[in-house]
Amino acid sequence: MSDLFQSYTLNNGIVIKNRLVVAPMTHSASNPDGTISGQERHFIANRAQNMGMFITAATLVCANGKAFHRQPEAIQESQLDSLRETAQILQKQGAKAILQIHHGGIHAIADLLGGRHLISASDHAPSGAKAATADEVRELIQAFAHATDLAIRAGFDGVEIHGANGYLIQQFFSGEFNRRTDEWGGSLANRLRFPLAVIDTVHAVRERHQKPEFIIGYRFSPEEPGENGLTMTDTFALIDELVKKPLQYLHISLWDFDKKARRGADTSLTRMQLVHERINGRLPLIGVGNLLSGKRIREAYATGWAEFIALGKAVMINPNIAQLLQEQRDNEIVTELDPEQADHYGIPDILWGYCVQGGDWLPPVKGKNWQPMDI
Ligand SMILES: Cc1cc2nc3c(=O)[nH]c(=O)nc-3n(C[C@H](O)[C@H](O)[C@H](O)COP(=O)(O)O)c2cc1C
What we know:
Elements: E1 8-9, E2 15-16, E3 20-22, H1 38-45, E4 53-55, E5 59-60, H2 80-92, E6 96-102, E7 119-120, E8 130-131, H3 134-154, E9 158-163, H4 168-173, H5 188-208, E10 215-220, H6 232-242, E11 249-252, H7 271-279, E12 285-287, H8 294-302, E13 308-311, H9 313-317, H10 321-326, H11 342-345, H12 349-357
Parallel strand pairs: 3-4, 3-13, 4-6, 5-6, 6-9, 7-8, 9-10, 10-11, 11-12, 12-13
Antiparallel strand pairs: 1-2
This protein binds flavin mononucleotide (FMN).
Residues 23-26, 57-58, 100, 162, 164-165, 219, 253, 255, 288-291, 311-314, 351, 361-362 line the site of flavin mononucleotide (FMN).
């Protein structure tokens, strides 16, 4: 069986010490001003040990995109010290620290926007979001660049552009949400323009800092429900463009590693296999999704469909999971949270509250029925 603990050298020469990645997890614990809090420190302080990379919670790049209460931010100079501390907490544990940069678009929460209006690719009646003007589109792209500038100055090893989970970047790519008739919408090429412009501008910041070692990753969701939602065909077109960009990795967002394609490709095959074959070795792929036991993690890696395996819920339940895997102590890996042991996990209060209530996107809880999210 292939070894999860072999190193991987990215195309910019940076060596990732093994194939395990902490999946980005919004923890709902930052201070209201977007800086790091005590509970957040505690949550990230003991989860990156023996991990190759740690991707942070979705971190806000622009005030009109705030989609979570207590979301970390990379907007203001005043947040630089907080970002520096976050990077250092992860790096001290030996992991590469990657800042996930994010804008919620239609999923922003109006009450958190300080009177600003919601903004997206197109008008969106259910959320009240307005279509960005051409100037606002450029400002949004610039916000990702500015967050990257802060990330570099804070000492992060890289950024991950959050193009997944239905947030702003995906809203521009998706025919379901993007109904623009200008250069930023309409044809597939036009819908790709925003995600690709974000990548170009993030790369330009790296160039300006003369930091080729800085890692740039891109996360995407391969399919959307809904008549005009993204299909595997759209995702193949996205991948064909992404591999031409100066990226270091791609990261698929899935709730189930074994989920088969819904449409636009051979539906007897998994999204993981299809995406990996399309990339065809041109960039490494991070795979993810409901890998809770040692057996499932090792089986997923052994498929060969992912150069890296990201773990979310498994890391919430087992902060030291990488060490357990490395020492072949798979029988000590726990697959559900024990609601009686709040102190054991160090999960911030708000997130812990969601966990004990239960949900398909959250870890299974002892004594409760649970089905993984299926989208
Ligand atoms: C509590 C929680 C918060 C999450 N927050 C983010 C996030 O900020 N950004 C993101 O891209 N994905 C986020 N996700 C999705 C995870 O990165 C991951 O794709 C998903 O949980 C499936 O992996 P898992 O089964 O190993 O948990 C979150 C998941 C959970 C459970």
